[in-house]
Every structure is written in C-alpha cells, then in structure tokens.
Specification:
Elements lengths: L1 E3 L6 E3 L2 H10 L2 E2 L2 E2 L9 H9 L8 E4 L6 E4 L9 E2 L1 H5 L18 H11 L2 E2 L3 E2 L7 E5 L5 E7 L2 E10 L2 E4 L2 E4 L2 E10 L5 E4 L8 E4 L5 E7 L5 E4 L2 E2 L1 H13 L3 H15 L3 E3 L3 E2 L6 E5 L2 E4 L1 E5 L2 E7 L4 E8 L6 E8 L4 E8 L6 E4 L8 E4 L8 E4 L2 E2 L2 H14 L20 H5 L4 H6 L35 E2 L6 E2 L3 H10 L8 H9 L8 E4 L6 E4 L8 E3 L1 H7 L1
Parallel strand pairs: 7-8, 9-10, 10-11, 11-12, 12-13, 12-14, 13-15, 14-15, 15-16, 16-17, 17-18, 18-19, 21-38, 22-23, 23-25, 24-26, 26-27, 27-28, 28-29, 30-31, 31-32
Antiparallel strand pairs: 1-2, 3-4, 5-6, 19-20, 32-33, 34-35, 36-37
Amino acid sequence: MQKFCKQCDVSFEVTDDDLLFLDKISPSFAGKKYLIPAPDFCASCRLQRRMLFRNERSLYKRKCDGTGKSILAAFPEDSKYKVHEHDYWWSDKWDAINYGKDFDFNKTLTEQLNALVIEVPHINLNSIGCENSDYVNYFINSKNSYLTFGGAHNEDCMYSKFLNHSKNILDGLSLSACEFCYEGNFSEGCYSCRYFVNCRNCSECTLIEECQGCKNCMACFGLKNKEYYVLNKFVGKEEFQKFADYCKIMSRSKLKELKEKLANLKKDLPHVQSHIYASEDSTGDMILNSKNCKNCFDIKECENCENMNFAPKSVNSKDACYSAPGPMSFGYQLCSTIGMENSMANFYTWYGGGNLYYCLECMTCTDCFACVGLRNKQYCVLNKQYTKEEYEDLVGKIIEKFKEWGQFLDPELSFFAYNETVAQEHFPLTKEQALKLGFSWRDNEEKQYQASNYPIPELITEVGDDILGEIFACQDCAKNYKILAEELKFYKLMGVPIPLKCHNCRHSDRMDLRRFFKLYTRECAKCSAKIKTIYSPDRSEIVYCHQCYLNET
C-alpha cells in the first residue's frame, strides 16, 4: 500500500508486515477488537513528531508550584504548565487522580487531553536515583554528573549525552562502558582515549575512528587489534612513545594538524556501510546483538523491531525513540518510555502492566487511556477512575468516534516549543518552518553577552587556577561560559586544551558527526552490491558492504 505523508507529502509504503503488526497489537475492549489503522505520516515525520515531546537540555530557573522553592526545570517560569520539584512530584502530598474529568464526546480527544495536561503538575526534570547530579535530565542511577543528558549508571561525567555504565567522561556522545575518555562519540568499551569516533574496546588512543581492539594508536582509521600505529602505519613501541610524548599535552595547533592528516588518510580507505555488530537481518546504524531489526539506530539486544531509536531490549515493536534502558514488547509510537508492553502513543510512561494509550507521565499504571501524571492506577480515562467494565465500554466508544486513534500524540500536547526539543537537533527548522507545520516556537531572550579578555593558552600546562574565576565567550554563539574546578582537573589529566566553545556548541559539533537517522541506497564500491548505508550517494567516501569491509580489514 502506497500512502502520501500528511506532513511532507512524500510517498511511503505500508507493507503487509506493517499491517500484520498493527493487527497483532490492536487491543480488544469489551470483547471487540479495535484495529489500529496504517500511519498517516512517513517514518521520518513520525520520528520528528515524537521527538518534539522531549526537551533534554533547555533548562530554566523557576519556582516549584508545590513548595515555592527555587528549582531547575525543563519548563520556563512563564510556562503555562504547573511544575513540581522531583521529590514533591513523587511524594504522596498530591495525587493526579484528583484532576479527573468526565469524557466529553462533543470535544476532540486532543482538546480534552490538552486541558488535563495544563492542569496536572509536571515533574521538573526526568531523573531517578541520581546523587550529586542536579543539572542532569533523563538520567538514571548516576552520581557526580553535570550537564549530562540521557543515560544510566554513570559517574563523574560532564557535558555529555547518552552515556551508559561509564565513568570520568567529558564531552561524550553515545558512549557505553567507557572510562577516562574525552570527546568520544558512538563508541563502547574504550579506556583513556581522546577524540575518537565509532570505536570499540580501544585504550590509550588519540584521534582514532572506526577502530576495534586497538591500543596505543594515534590518528588511525579502520584498524583492528593493532598497537603502536600512527596514521595506520606500524612504528614500533619506541617510535610510538616519542610521538605519544610529543602529543601528550595536546595543543590546538597539534590537534588541527593531526585532524588534517587523518582526513587525508581516510579519503583512500573504505568505510563500512553501517555499524552493525553480532546481529543478523538488520539495517540501520549502531546495532548490537539484535535480530531482524529494520531502520533502527542505537539499539542492542532487540528482535523484530522497526524504526527504533535508542530503544534497547525491545522486541516486536515499531516507531519508538528514547525507550531506554528498556525493556519493551509490542510497543508502537512511543517516546521516552520504559518497560512498556502492549502500549501505543505514550510519552514518558514507565513500567506497569501495559495497555496504556495516549498517556503522558504515568508511572506503574496499566489499562489507562488519555491520562496525565498518574501513579499506580488502573482503568482510568482522563484521570477518572472506572470499573473494568465501565473502562472498556467507554474506551471502545472513544475509539469509534475519534480520528486520533492510531496516530501519535498531537504536537499541541507537547509541553515544549519545537526549538527546545531534540527534534530541533535532528530535524532543524526555522521559526517560520516550525510554525507552518503547526509546531510551537520559543523566541530566545535577547541578552548582551560579556566579552572575554582572558587569553586562553594553547597548552593546558600553561593554565593556572586563576582561570576558574573568568567568564569566556563562545567563539560560535558568543554565549558566556565558565571553567569549573573539576573540569580543569580533567583537562589537565587528559592533556587537552581549554575549549573555545560553550558546551552546547560543542555538543552541536558532535551531533554533526551523525545528525540524521537516515539510510540511503547505493552500491558497494568493491562488489557493486546494492546496500543500505548511512552515507548518501553524493558523499565522497569509499563505502563497502559489511562482507567486503570485513574481508578488507
């Protein structure tokens, strides 16, 4: 079946497998099955519309509406939403069931759910079990971390995103089981590495890409199980040590020189079509230990999934993003959920028995429809409690009457402006473009930033503690930033220069390494087979299929 996306007007296919999946997850109420229809939007637009619900890094100072305390929140002071600080939101001092409403069949589901979203208080930041980590969001069971967003089980991390089981990380993006690393991206199991991309199980390396099992390598690309290599050439322990001593304290000029040499080296070397490890029958990128997963990115231990992003331990699910650390089964159209079963069209719902539809911020609930902020509840609609029989009868009538069934939550229900969310990171729009699509926008407050008169030295060894009292201006956006004591200590430990950009602009630079979750069709440069790859056909890289790349390396 061919359909045209209601947002971008691009043609997309709904396969027989898609229809079979929708039939399988379609729920029954009062003995009647309610089929979930085919989507109205293409996979890319569906992802964008889910992402516009998740604000990770736009943080504001405001007051808690429950305690009056000054707090840090994802909601600005002038937001129309009520906000509770973390401990108060999770306490028994209030109950979202008290905001329950009767369903009005003369109004749309979105209208009524939006009224509830405005009335029910929201949690200020989404973090659980964190210690000494006030400036984090979507962070779980971690400690001593600062301005780090998305992840679990981390310690002593700063200015990073999507970290798991990692320690002593600064300026990292999508790292797992890494330690003492700086400027690492999309890598796993690395130790004491600087400036690395798409690497696994490497240690004591600087400026490496696409390397596995390497140690003591510098400015290398595509190596496996090598040691004492510089620019992909074996130099031996003694010669490598001389080079390592030269680069132990990295200056900006040295780093620029090495990056240029590595860029020239990469031009003539093959790139693997995508990064898929110990998996079968799967397409996408950064896939580990998975089976039969299509168009998936940053997943592991998944099976029979499609259009998934950052959703580990998922099975038989489609169209979900940031559903970490998992698990999930028979989920569809979800964002920022954990432990969902047989559920659809939810944002930030955690655990419970499943069967949740059109819910936001509901925890350990089951069999709920169009609810906000509930905890430990069952058989609720618009936060009002019903018996099992009443619930199933009402939900069936709602589905029969309204067009929203089967689609994700309407963008109107997002708590945040488009440019505050991760959607802007992956699908950047201008204000005019966002408003035209029906998304909201928040204008940045005009502010005069302070110029910096402090000359930042080339070498970290030339930096003294007096820098801790200085205010710097980002060379990209001109916003001011400071260097913290823990940060300075880490730069000295790693031998890297003080950054000239604020943490947000540094994050944007890392995002440029893989901003778009998209696959392209092109030919393997070795065997001419048709492949699905993260490299568009108009790019200059030499791209090999997985088998040819394995043979080559």
